[in-house]
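BUG: 3D viewer hangs when loading the predicted structure for this chain

Environment: internal workstation, default settings.
Expected: structure renders.
Actual: progress bar stalls at 90%.

Input used:
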Amino acid sequence: MPAKISTICYLHDFTEWLTQEFTVKEITAVARLDDNDPTKIVYLRVKAFILVDQNILYQIKDFSNG
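Structure tokens produced before the viewer hung:
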């Protein structure tokens, strides 16, 4: 069942490493699903791939989610 994230409370864990083409950042965040109920939380695992060189061709496609 989809849920709307209200607030990211804090970062639980953060790692970063460098590959040949990308800086990879992996974040585990704790987010609140309900402003009125602090027991409704979710852990989010997010990976971000940041290009080291903007001229490198890569296979990851851009996307947006409305």
